[in-house]
């Protein structure tokens, strides 16, 4: 169990770093997951959100991230993992909304993501959004 958790965290960190590069050299960081971290529908929605942000399809990214959040709310996985993934999905949707100039909704998502789980990447995105908005 402990080894699996460490592997998941290590892989998640690796994939997260590569996702940040995918985001058009933006200062925002996008999170993606691998199939070991979540169910197939959650993984697919989660990762398609990041792909659509990269492709600047913000409306579609918003819709897909919202779907991932809904799937996570229905998930029976480990509570801490579900909270962390929900936080990441909210952060991804927040980034999408910020880039789409929907600042109020984006900032709201980022604040909610930061409240759900303590994550350096989510905190980075929230700080970046506040700097952008001069808050």
Q: How much is the average pLDDT?
A: 81
Strand content is under 5%
Q: Which spans of ≥5 residues are poorly predicted at pLDDT below 50?
A: 1-25
Structural class: mainly alpha
- Rg for CA atoms: 14 Å
The total beta strand count reads 0
Head-to-tail CA distance between termini:
42 Å
Which properties best describe this structure?
mainly alpha, 6 helices, single chain
Your description of this structure?
The protein contains six helices and no strands. Residues 1-25 have low confidence and may be disordered. Helix 2 (40-54) packs antiparallel against helix 3, helix 3 (58-73) packs antiparallel against helix 4 (79-99) and helix 4 (79-99) runs antiparallel to helix 5 (103-116). The N and C termini lie far apart (42 Å). Helices cover 74% and strands 0% of the residues. The chain has helices spanning 2-22, 40-54, 58-73, 79-99, 103-116, 120-132. 37% of the residues are buried. It is an all-alpha fold.
